[in-house]
Specification:
Six copies of one chain form a homohexamer. By secondary structure, chain A is of the alpha+beta class. Chain A is built from five helices and five strands; from the N terminus they run βαααββαββα. Chain A has a single domain, classed as Alpha-Beta Plaits (2-Layer Sandwich), CATH 3.30.70. The radius of gyration of chain A is 18 Å and the shape is elongated. The two termini of chain A are 30 Å apart.
Chain lengths: 169, 169, 169, 169, 169, 169
Amino acid sequence: MSDLTHIDAQGNANMVDVTQKSVTEREARAEGYVYMNQNTFDLIVSRGHKKGDVLAIAQIAGIQAAKRTSDLIPLCHPLMLTSVKVHLEPEAPTDEQPQPRVRIESLCKLAGQTGVEMEALTAVSVAALTLYDMCKAVDKAMRIEGIQLLEKRGGKSGHYQTPSASQSK
Amino acid sequence: MSDLTHIDAQGNANMVDVTQKSVTEREARAEGYVYMNQNTFDLIVSRGHKKGDVLAIAQIAGIQAAKRTSDLIPLCHPLMLTSVKVHLEPEAPTDEQPQPRVRIESLCKLAGQTGVEMEALTAVSVAALTLYDMCKAVDKAMRIEGIQLLEKRGGKSGHYQTPSASQSK
Amino acid sequence: MSDLTHIDAQGNANMVDVTQKSVTEREARAEGYVYMNQNTFDLIVSRGHKKGDVLAIAQIAGIQAAKRTSDLIPLCHPLMLTSVKVHLEPEAPTDEQPQPRVRIESLCKLAGQTGVEMEALTAVSVAALTLYDMCKAVDKAMRIEGIQLLEKRGGKSGHYQTPSASQSK
Amino acid sequence: MSDLTHIDAQGNANMVDVTQKSVTEREARAEGYVYMNQNTFDLIVSRGHKKGDVLAIAQIAGIQAAKRTSDLIPLCHPLMLTSVKVHLEPEAPTDEQPQPRVRIESLCKLAGQTGVEMEALTAVSVAALTLYDMCKAVDKAMRIEGIQLLEKRGGKSGHYQTPSASQSK
Amino acid sequence: MSDLTHIDAQGNANMVDVTQKSVTEREARAEGYVYMNQNTFDLIVSRGHKKGDVLAIAQIAGIQAAKRTSDLIPLCHPLMLTSVKVHLEPEAPTDEQPQPRVRIESLCKLAGQTGVEMEALTAVSVAALTLYDMCKAVDKAMRIEGIQLLEKRGGKSGHYQTPSASQSK
Amino acid sequence: MSDLTHIDAQGNANMVDVTQKSVTEREARAEGYVYMNQNTFDLIVSRGHKKGDVLAIAQIAGIQAAKRTSDLIPLCHPLMLTSVKVHLEPEAPTDEQPQPRVRIESLCKLAGQTGVEMEALTAVSVAALTLYDMCKAVDKAMRIEGIQLLEKRGGKSGHYQTPSASQSK
């Protein structure tokens, strides 16, 4: 598989035909980070002890976005996720990682004919955007970084683990 | 404005009340990057000379996503964008920037009561995800990096330019 | 099952993982009522003999809403309904029930890994809201009452019938 | 205004033409209740002290649903809400009101040509459905009751207050 | 204006920037036809005397689709329609027009910065598709024909009337 | 099957119950045409050699619309397409067909309990509307014609070929 599967021989866009693929259990795990200044980080963390905090809202937004992936990404197949998990973890600055950040990790599953990598990545992206939205009044310089697939299982291509994933957490 | 505007005094989520804000012309510019290996980069660039290439599809997906921002981000206001531009530019490796990447820049505008930062950031994010989707068969290790607001104009808070924006292009 | 399945041990929201659940035939039946004044009731009933009446539009809105349940309810799984029925019945006042009302009943089915209670309840709710919308110019005091699950079949928890369902029809 | 505005003289459905209406500031307030057993009520209340609780998720779902009202209710106009507030309050049983319940209240605003009653009612309905969804594993007999408009302001018909609203809170 | 406004000088897709356009009252009228065999036509017409007939459902679907135009057509601006009308009229065969058909006409209005031609055309198209859907069990050979803009008013380009529109009704 | 399956015996709308239908592989092929003047045709064709051309955008819009069919057509079942193909072909005028046009053909597939005719027809319709949108600044008199089902396979009713399909290509 050495070529772009979504573009056919004539250069046209193509939704990959998965009709003949077998139904297998599939899952994908992705991550991403939102970097911010110390003041914003402190506000997020201190709010974390009350209801309605920004992390909970970003988590819900990420779960909902995973369900809408095929609506957002033009050549994604519609599919029926059986599980979506999104977790946000504030990471205080350390010597090696001096800027405060929130780490986002997602896990999506289904039994189907196509993988769920895009659902996992979309969940992380929209959770990150939601975090940005809720803090932008105090910190417009936040950055979203390091969105990547960590791992996938199932399907013909089998198990995949992103090289950098071992050290990413 | 030293606090999170989307969480009220009781810790509840809050869609900021903009009823009394004046209608002004507003715009926001955002950017982001997708890093990939050389083979993937070459496939994207060579396809760029034919119709239906991945950059054109990612661009369309970004424009459409901007229009759906209030559906994706829970506390965003619905609004009527008057302009959305998304541009993708392959950047071949250089000495300073040794990994091949595609740079994505968006520009959103409207005349309204609330800013369009989230629309610009959402356009970049979904264009990046679409690029990932179309190339993932050849390169699962692509990463989405550096999504940030470059600039905004209009509204009470006036002109804002991200500190790093000056050198980013 | 003595706890809230949608909140995990850390207090985070959770879309229940149904990956390992078996696919069984499932159905759910729900009901609800819209109470109104006599004049509004008469308008609805008299229009019922012509095409384009409010009951037909409310019915269509209820069917469509059932299909969008996972878009509306954050932790609902996307699923593929195989049947949606919505029925609206004007109920003239009686001695026991002196206020005119319209009764709404829905029935949803699928073969899947998760139940369709929320789809049935969403169909009833949106049909009721649509009825309100179409009559609100003449009667803003209408009330939506008694939305409940009547019965469900299929899945691990088996057959369920709401205690009050026996007398509700 | 003694007739159904959404049905024209030929009995056809009709999206009311508001082109000539003036833009005024409008708001609407609605309420509703979810009745449940004591065990479910206790679970909701005790979770209320941790992040990610069911009330916060139902609140977010209600806010998002308000923004999608014109997608759900066939003859509603699309409009740009400037404010949506949803509040959920557990009400422990009293002598007069012996069943535990959660009260939901919403407030929607915009400056526009048409009212926001349907948005306020939709927010309450979907928040109630979300509450049901998150507790249905422990209590399928919950009921959604008393969804009604409490008050509206703005527009040609001016101020309206539901007769029962004075005592409802 | 002698070129494609939606493609910029570099050949990229472009959502036309209407930020500087003035807000004027705009409207557009479109039509289309669904051709069918006599049996299908008779079923539609005879059902027309009962509630829930296919014409009423197609009409509702057309109105709803007009509201979703910017979601369907990638480079359309989001806008707030103030009026949508859809009318379906069965036309029995005549000497000049020997095949039974249903004529669909739509009218959309708003006060805004961009026209509503696409909304009017989308309403007709989806009403036609809905008619097809409801009759396809008896007549798969139905054809959708003659979808065109009849007339538009407002905006810089002013009044436009399709040449063939004069005789089309 | 001599009657309208989507209307029940009481004249109510009905989403056909497919719960008991067997899962079979199904596909449907549809076509349609957009007629235009020579100038518009030339612009489309000449742009076809650059990236971002109108045909590529219309193709993407058609693919995305197929995935949203059950959202647009009230009584369509939600389903999980395994393949969507949309192809647009400019057809220069000939003696028999003197007006320039673009032909659109779609092919949809899934393994499911219900057919995909509506998905194929919706893909063609929205691709045609998108073409219209992108060229309307130069040619408002374009017409969408000849949208029909060409062929379907699978399901109880088996293979169907539209009579006129043999000569249509």
